From TrEMBL:
Keywords: Amino-acid biosynthesis, Aminotransferase, Cytoplasm, Pyridoxal phosphate, Pyridoxine biosynthesis, Serine biosynthesis, Transferase. Pfam families: Aminotran_5 (PF00266). It comes from Permianibacter aggregans. The modification N6-(pyridoxal phosphate)lysine is found at residue 183. Its EC number is 2.6.1.52. This is Phosphoserine aminotransferase. Its main location: cytoplasm. The gene is serC. L-glutamate binds at residue 29. Binds 1 pyridoxal phosphate per subunit. Homodimer. One of its GO terms (cellular component) is cytoplasm. The lineage of its organism: Bacteria, Pseudomonadati, Pseudomonadota, Gammaproteobacteria, Pseudomonadales.
Length: 347
Protein backbone atom coordinates (compact mmCIF):
# COMPACT_ATOMS: atom_id res chain seq x y z
CA UNK A 1 0.00 0.00 0.00
CA UNK A 2 1.25 3.52 -0.69
CA UNK A 3 2.29 5.08 2.60
CA UNK A 4 0.29 8.25 1.86
CA UNK A 5 -2.85 6.13 1.53
CA UNK A 6 -2.29 4.38 4.84
CA UNK A 7 -1.71 7.72 6.54
CA UNK A 8 -4.88 9.15 5.09
CA UNK A 9 -6.85 6.08 6.17
CA UNK A 10 -5.34 6.40 9.64
CA UNK A 11 -6.28 10.06 9.77
CA UNK A 12 -9.87 9.31 8.69
CA UNK A 13 -10.27 6.11 10.71
CA UNK A 14 -12.38 7.51 13.54
CA UNK A 15 -13.93 10.42 11.71
CA UNK A 16 -14.71 10.02 8.03
CA UNK A 17 -15.80 13.16 6.15
CA UNK A 18 -16.48 14.93 9.46
CA UNK A 19 -19.27 12.47 10.34
CA UNK A 20 -17.88 11.57 13.74
CA UNK A 21 -17.64 7.90 12.82
CA UNK A 22 -15.62 5.51 10.70
CA UNK A 23 -16.44 4.60 7.11
CA UNK A 24 -16.69 1.06 8.53
CA UNK A 25 -19.58 2.11 10.72
CA UNK A 26 -21.95 3.65 8.20
CA UNK A 27 -24.54 1.80 6.15
CA UNK A 28 -23.48 0.74 2.67
CA UNK A 29 -26.93 1.95 1.58
CA UNK A 30 -26.32 5.48 2.89
CA UNK A 31 -25.94 8.29 0.36
CA UNK A 32 -22.40 8.92 1.57
CA UNK A 33 -21.26 5.34 1.04
CA UNK A 34 -22.99 4.98 -2.32
CA UNK A 35 -21.27 8.19 -3.44
CA UNK A 36 -17.90 6.77 -2.37
CA UNK A 37 -18.58 3.50 -4.18
CA UNK A 38 -19.56 5.31 -7.37
CA UNK A 39 -16.55 7.60 -7.20
CA UNK A 40 -14.21 4.60 -6.89
CA UNK A 41 -15.77 3.08 -9.99
CA UNK A 42 -15.50 6.37 -11.89
CA UNK A 43 -11.81 6.70 -10.99
CA UNK A 44 -11.06 3.12 -12.05
CA UNK A 45 -12.87 3.71 -15.35
CA UNK A 46 -10.76 6.82 -15.85
CA UNK A 47 -7.48 5.10 -14.89
CA UNK A 48 -8.06 2.14 -17.21
CA UNK A 49 -10.10 3.92 -19.86
CA UNK A 50 -13.04 1.51 -19.45
CA UNK A 51 -15.96 2.13 -21.81
CA UNK A 52 -19.69 1.81 -21.07
CA UNK A 53 -19.66 -1.54 -22.88
CA UNK A 54 -18.16 -2.95 -19.68
CA UNK A 55 -19.50 -3.42 -16.18
CA UNK A 56 -17.11 -2.88 -13.28
CA UNK A 57 -17.87 -5.11 -10.31
CA UNK A 58 -16.45 -4.88 -6.81
CA UNK A 59 -16.83 -8.50 -5.75
CA UNK A 60 -16.33 -10.17 -2.42
CA UNK A 61 -13.56 -12.69 -2.11
CA UNK A 62 -10.49 -13.46 -4.11
CA UNK A 63 -9.17 -14.36 -7.51
CA UNK A 64 -9.67 -17.98 -6.50
CA UNK A 65 -13.43 -17.33 -6.28
CA UNK A 66 -13.25 -16.07 -9.85
CA UNK A 67 -11.69 -19.38 -10.96
CA UNK A 68 -15.14 -20.89 -10.20
CA UNK A 69 -17.29 -17.91 -11.22
CA UNK A 70 -15.83 -17.70 -14.72
CA UNK A 71 -16.87 -21.17 -15.93
CA UNK A 72 -20.22 -20.96 -14.12
CA UNK A 73 -20.99 -17.72 -16.00
CA UNK A 74 -19.21 -18.08 -19.32
CA UNK A 75 -18.80 -21.78 -20.09
CA UNK A 76 -21.99 -23.41 -21.41
CA UNK A 77 -22.45 -26.99 -20.27
CA UNK A 78 -21.88 -28.22 -23.81
CA UNK A 79 -19.11 -25.75 -24.59
CA UNK A 80 -15.36 -25.75 -24.30
CA UNK A 81 -12.87 -23.17 -23.05
CA UNK A 82 -9.19 -22.75 -23.83
CA UNK A 83 -6.90 -22.29 -20.82
CA UNK A 84 -3.27 -21.35 -21.16
CA UNK A 85 -1.10 -22.80 -18.41
CA UNK A 86 2.02 -20.74 -17.71
CA UNK A 87 2.43 -21.30 -14.00
CA UNK A 88 0.91 -21.94 -10.63
CA UNK A 89 -2.05 -19.55 -10.80
CA UNK A 90 -3.19 -20.41 -14.31
CA UNK A 91 -2.80 -24.08 -13.35
CA UNK A 92 -5.19 -23.55 -10.43
CA UNK A 93 -7.66 -21.82 -12.75
CA UNK A 94 -7.51 -24.83 -15.10
CA UNK A 95 -8.10 -27.33 -12.31
CA UNK A 96 -11.15 -25.44 -11.05
CA UNK A 97 -12.66 -24.93 -14.53
CA UNK A 98 -12.37 -28.67 -15.25
CA UNK A 99 -14.87 -29.30 -12.46
CA UNK A 100 -17.49 -27.44 -14.51
CA UNK A 101 -16.93 -28.44 -18.09
CA UNK A 102 -14.67 -29.17 -21.03
CA UNK A 103 -11.33 -27.44 -20.86
CA UNK A 104 -8.63 -27.44 -23.50
CA UNK A 105 -5.50 -26.96 -21.43
CA UNK A 106 -2.51 -25.57 -23.30
CA UNK A 107 0.69 -26.13 -21.36
CA UNK A 108 2.87 -23.31 -22.62
CA UNK A 109 5.62 -22.93 -20.02
CA UNK A 110 8.77 -24.84 -20.99
CA UNK A 111 12.30 -25.09 -19.69
CA UNK A 112 14.73 -24.27 -22.48
CA UNK A 113 18.42 -24.63 -21.64
CA UNK A 114 17.75 -23.95 -17.97
CA UNK A 115 15.51 -20.95 -18.62
CA UNK A 116 11.74 -20.88 -18.46
CA UNK A 117 10.00 -19.49 -21.50
CA UNK A 118 6.55 -19.53 -23.12
CA UNK A 119 5.99 -21.46 -26.35
CA UNK A 120 5.00 -19.66 -29.57
CA UNK A 121 1.26 -18.92 -29.88
CA UNK A 122 1.30 -20.46 -33.38
CA UNK A 123 2.02 -23.84 -31.74
CA UNK A 124 -1.02 -23.65 -29.44
CA UNK A 125 -3.86 -25.96 -30.36
CA UNK A 126 -6.80 -23.59 -29.89
CA UNK A 127 -10.43 -24.69 -30.01
CA UNK A 128 -12.72 -23.45 -32.79
CA UNK A 129 -15.60 -21.58 -31.17
CA UNK A 130 -14.12 -21.79 -27.69
CA UNK A 131 -16.31 -20.00 -25.14
CA UNK A 132 -13.23 -18.04 -24.08
CA UNK A 133 -9.45 -18.06 -23.79
CA UNK A 134 -8.20 -17.78 -20.20
CA UNK A 135 -4.66 -16.76 -19.32
CA UNK A 136 -2.63 -15.11 -16.61
CA UNK A 137 -0.74 -12.07 -17.96
CA UNK A 138 1.58 -12.06 -14.94
CA UNK A 139 2.34 -15.27 -13.06
CA UNK A 140 3.07 -13.92 -9.61
CA UNK A 141 4.99 -16.89 -8.24
CA UNK A 142 7.02 -17.82 -11.31
CA UNK A 143 7.65 -14.22 -12.33
CA UNK A 144 6.50 -14.82 -15.92
CA UNK A 145 4.78 -11.94 -17.68
CA UNK A 146 3.44 -11.37 -21.18
CA UNK A 147 4.54 -8.03 -22.59
CA UNK A 148 1.55 -8.08 -24.97
CA UNK A 149 -1.75 -9.90 -25.52
CA UNK A 150 -0.81 -13.38 -26.77
CA UNK A 151 -3.82 -14.08 -29.03
CA UNK A 152 -6.40 -11.86 -30.70
CA UNK A 153 -9.91 -12.29 -32.07
CA UNK A 154 -11.01 -14.37 -29.08
CA UNK A 155 -12.93 -13.71 -25.90
CA UNK A 156 -9.98 -13.11 -23.63
CA UNK A 157 -10.36 -13.73 -19.90
CA UNK A 158 -7.37 -12.52 -17.92
CA UNK A 159 -6.27 -12.96 -14.31
CA UNK A 160 -4.59 -9.60 -13.71
CA UNK A 161 -4.31 -9.99 -9.93
CA UNK A 162 -0.66 -9.01 -9.83
CA UNK A 163 -0.39 -6.62 -12.79
CA UNK A 164 -3.60 -4.59 -12.94
CA UNK A 165 -2.93 -0.82 -13.15
CA UNK A 166 0.81 -1.42 -13.61
CA UNK A 167 0.85 -0.42 -17.29
CA UNK A 168 -1.72 0.77 -19.84
CA UNK A 169 -3.79 -1.95 -21.48
CA UNK A 170 -6.56 -1.81 -24.05
CA UNK A 171 -9.55 -3.10 -22.09
CA UNK A 172 -11.53 -3.43 -25.34
CA UNK A 173 -9.36 -6.43 -26.27
CA UNK A 174 -10.77 -8.39 -23.31
CA UNK A 175 -14.03 -10.13 -22.49
CA UNK A 176 -13.31 -10.24 -18.78
CA UNK A 177 -10.51 -8.96 -16.56
CA UNK A 178 -10.30 -9.83 -12.89
CA UNK A 179 -7.88 -8.99 -10.12
CA UNK A 180 -7.78 -9.73 -6.43
CA UNK A 181 -7.22 -6.40 -4.73
CA UNK A 182 -4.38 -7.34 -2.41
CA UNK A 183 -1.45 -7.11 -4.81
CA UNK A 184 -1.76 -3.85 -6.69
CA UNK A 185 -4.85 -2.17 -5.25
CA UNK A 186 -5.69 -2.55 -1.58
CA UNK A 187 -6.38 -5.03 1.19
CA UNK A 188 -7.41 -8.66 0.66
CA UNK A 189 -11.07 -9.61 0.55
CA UNK A 190 -12.18 -7.85 -2.61
CA UNK A 191 -11.80 -8.63 -6.29
CA UNK A 192 -12.40 -6.27 -9.16
CA UNK A 193 -14.03 -7.73 -12.26
CA UNK A 194 -14.37 -5.83 -15.52
CA UNK A 195 -16.74 -7.68 -17.82
CA UNK A 196 -18.11 -6.93 -21.27
CA UNK A 197 -21.83 -6.53 -20.73
CA UNK A 198 -22.92 -8.94 -23.48
CA UNK A 199 -21.14 -11.78 -21.63
CA UNK A 200 -23.39 -11.45 -18.59
CA UNK A 201 -26.81 -12.97 -18.00
CA UNK A 202 -25.87 -16.50 -19.10
CA UNK A 203 -24.91 -18.04 -15.78
CA UNK A 204 -25.88 -21.66 -15.27
CA UNK A 205 -29.11 -22.08 -13.31
CA UNK A 206 -27.37 -23.58 -10.27
CA UNK A 207 -24.89 -20.69 -9.99
CA UNK A 208 -24.86 -19.33 -6.42
CA UNK A 209 -26.54 -15.96 -6.50
CA UNK A 210 -23.43 -14.03 -5.42
CA UNK A 211 -21.41 -15.76 -8.16
CA UNK A 212 -23.68 -14.45 -10.92
CA UNK A 213 -22.08 -11.42 -12.59
CA UNK A 214 -25.47 -10.20 -13.83
CA UNK A 215 -26.87 -10.14 -10.29
CA UNK A 216 -23.82 -8.20 -9.09
CA UNK A 217 -24.11 -5.74 -11.97
CA UNK A 218 -27.86 -5.25 -11.57
CA UNK A 219 -27.27 -4.38 -7.92
CA UNK A 220 -24.21 -2.17 -8.38
CA UNK A 221 -22.14 -4.79 -6.49
CA UNK A 222 -24.43 -4.37 -3.47
CA UNK A 223 -26.71 -7.40 -3.67
CA UNK A 224 -25.39 -8.05 -0.20
CA UNK A 225 -23.15 -5.93 2.02
CA UNK A 226 -20.05 -5.31 -0.06
CA UNK A 227 -16.50 -5.30 1.38
CA UNK A 228 -16.91 -1.65 2.35
CA UNK A 229 -13.52 -1.09 3.96
CA UNK A 230 -11.59 -2.63 1.07
CA UNK A 231 -13.67 -0.61 -1.39
CA UNK A 232 -12.91 2.59 0.54
CA UNK A 233 -9.17 1.86 0.51
CA UNK A 234 -9.29 1.07 -3.21
CA UNK A 235 -10.83 4.50 -3.75
CA UNK A 236 -7.92 6.09 -1.87
CA UNK A 237 -5.42 4.09 -3.95
CA UNK A 238 -7.16 5.26 -7.14
CA UNK A 239 -6.79 8.87 -5.92
CA UNK A 240 -3.12 8.23 -5.27
CA UNK A 241 -2.64 6.70 -8.74
CA UNK A 242 -4.30 9.70 -10.39
CA UNK A 243 -2.03 12.04 -8.41
CA UNK A 244 1.02 10.07 -9.59
CA UNK A 245 0.03 10.71 -13.20
CA UNK A 246 -2.13 7.63 -13.71
CA UNK A 247 -1.23 4.31 -15.24
CA UNK A 248 1.21 5.61 -17.90
CA UNK A 249 3.32 7.21 -15.15
CA UNK A 250 3.19 3.98 -13.11
CA UNK A 251 4.35 2.03 -16.17
CA UNK A 252 7.45 4.21 -16.57
CA UNK A 253 8.22 3.94 -12.87
CA UNK A 254 7.66 0.16 -12.81
CA UNK A 255 9.79 -0.44 -15.90
CA UNK A 256 12.67 1.46 -14.33
CA UNK A 257 12.39 -0.39 -11.00
CA UNK A 258 12.43 -3.76 -12.81
CA UNK A 259 15.26 -2.73 -15.14
CA UNK A 260 17.49 -1.80 -12.20
CA UNK A 261 16.76 -4.98 -10.26
CA UNK A 262 17.32 -7.33 -13.22
CA UNK A 263 20.54 -5.46 -14.06
CA UNK A 264 21.73 -6.14 -10.50
CA UNK A 265 20.87 -9.85 -10.81
CA UNK A 266 22.34 -10.28 -14.30
CA UNK A 267 25.45 -8.30 -13.43
CA UNK A 268 26.39 -10.46 -10.46
CA UNK A 269 27.22 -14.18 -10.79
CA UNK A 270 26.09 -14.53 -7.18
CA UNK A 271 22.44 -14.23 -8.34
CA UNK A 272 20.31 -15.68 -11.11
CA UNK A 273 16.81 -15.14 -12.50
CA UNK A 274 15.54 -18.27 -14.29
CA UNK A 275 13.15 -16.60 -16.79
CA UNK A 276 13.66 -15.85 -20.49
CA UNK A 277 14.21 -12.06 -20.56
CA UNK A 278 11.28 -11.68 -23.03
CA UNK A 279 8.90 -13.00 -20.34
CA UNK A 280 10.37 -11.47 -17.22
CA UNK A 281 7.84 -9.96 -14.85
CA UNK A 282 8.05 -6.27 -13.99
CA UNK A 283 6.09 -6.90 -10.79
CA UNK A 284 7.53 -10.08 -9.29
CA UNK A 285 11.24 -10.73 -9.61
CA UNK A 286 12.27 -14.22 -8.49
CA UNK A 287 15.94 -14.96 -8.06
CA UNK A 288 18.13 -17.69 -6.63
CA UNK A 289 21.53 -17.52 -5.01
CA UNK A 290 24.37 -19.40 -6.71
CA UNK A 291 25.04 -20.93 -3.30
CA UNK A 292 21.62 -21.95 -1.98
CA UNK A 293 23.08 -22.82 1.42
CA UNK A 294 23.16 -19.05 2.02
CA UNK A 295 19.38 -18.66 1.58
CA UNK A 296 18.56 -18.58 5.29
CA UNK A 297 21.33 -16.09 5.96
CA UNK A 298 20.20 -13.90 3.05
CA UNK A 299 16.64 -13.81 4.36
CA UNK A 300 17.65 -13.15 7.96
CA UNK A 301 20.07 -10.35 7.05
CA UNK A 302 17.72 -8.74 4.56
CA UNK A 303 14.98 -8.68 7.18
CA UNK A 304 17.39 -7.03 9.62
CA UNK A 305 18.05 -4.43 6.93
CA UNK A 306 14.31 -3.70 6.81
CA UNK A 307 13.76 -5.55 3.51
CA UNK A 308 10.72 -7.74 4.17
CA UNK A 309 8.96 -10.63 2.48
CA UNK A 310 11.78 -11.67 0.15
CA UNK A 311 11.27 -15.43 0.54
CA UNK A 312 10.02 -17.05 -2.65
CA UNK A 313 6.58 -18.69 -2.56
CA UNK A 314 6.60 -21.81 -0.38
CA UNK A 315 6.00 -23.93 -3.51
CA UNK A 316 9.17 -22.80 -5.33
CA UNK A 317 11.63 -21.54 -2.71
CA UNK A 318 14.43 -19.13 -3.56
CA UNK A 319 13.79 -15.41 -3.33
CA UNK A 320 11.19 -13.12 -4.82
CA UNK A 321 10.99 -9.36 -4.76
CA UNK A 322 7.45 -8.12 -5.41
CA UNK A 323 7.75 -4.57 -6.65
CA UNK A 324 4.13 -3.55 -7.10
CA UNK A 325 2.96 -0.02 -7.88
CA UNK A 326 3.26 1.07 -4.26
CA UNK A 327 6.93 0.02 -3.96
CA UNK A 328 8.96 3.21 -4.20
CA UNK A 329 12.22 3.46 -6.14
CA UNK A 330 14.02 3.87 -2.81
CA UNK A 331 12.84 0.38 -1.82
CA UNK A 332 14.35 -1.14 -4.96
CA UNK A 333 17.56 0.85 -4.49
CA UNK A 334 17.84 -0.39 -0.91
CA UNK A 335 17.39 -3.99 -2.05
CA UNK A 336 20.06 -3.60 -4.74
CA UNK A 337 22.50 -2.07 -2.25
CA UNK A 338 21.85 -4.94 0.16
CA UNK A 339 22.25 -7.60 -2.55
CA UNK A 340 25.51 -6.08 -3.78
CA UNK A 341 26.90 -5.89 -0.26
CA UNK A 342 25.75 -9.41 0.64
CA UNK A 343 27.40 -10.85 -2.48
CA UNK A 344 30.65 -9.03 -1.70
CA UNK A 345 30.71 -10.39 1.82
CA UNK A 346 29.85 -13.97 0.88
CA UNK A 347 30.98 -14.31 -2.74
C1 LIG B 1 -2.50 -13.97 -5.62
C2 LIG B 1 -3.03 -14.47 -6.92
C3 LIG B 1 -4.16 -15.29 -7.00
C4 LIG B 1 -4.90 -15.81 -5.80
O1 LIG B 1 -5.40 -14.84 -5.01
P1 LIG B 1 -6.34 -15.23 -3.76
O2 LIG B 1 -6.80 -13.90 -3.32
O3 LIG B 1 -5.44 -15.90 -2.75
O4 LIG B 1 -7.38 -16.11 -4.26
C5 LIG B 1 -4.59 -15.68 -8.24
N1 LIG B 1 -3.98 -15.29 -9.35
C6 LIG B 1 -2.89 -14.49 -9.32
C7 LIG B 1 -2.23 -14.08 -10.59
C8 LIG B 1 -2.38 -14.06 -8.09
O5 LIG B 1 -1.29 -13.27 -8.06
Amino acid sequence: MPEEVLKRAQHELLDWQGRGCSVMEISHRSDAYVALAQSAERKLRQLMNISDDYAVLFCHGSATHQFSMIPLNLLPETGKADYLNTGIWSDKAVKEAKRFGAVNEIKALVNQNGQFTVTEPASWNLTDNAAYFHYCPNETIGGVEFSDIPVRGRTLVADMSSCILSKPIDVNQFGLIYAGAQKNIGPAGMTITIIRKDLMGKARPQTPVLFDYQVLADNASMYNTPPTWAWYLADLVFDWLLEQGGVPAMAVHNAEKARKLYACIDGNPFYRNPIDPKFRSRMNVPFVLADESLNTKFLAESEQAGLLALAGHRSVGGMRASIYNAMPMAGVDALIAFMTDFAQRHG
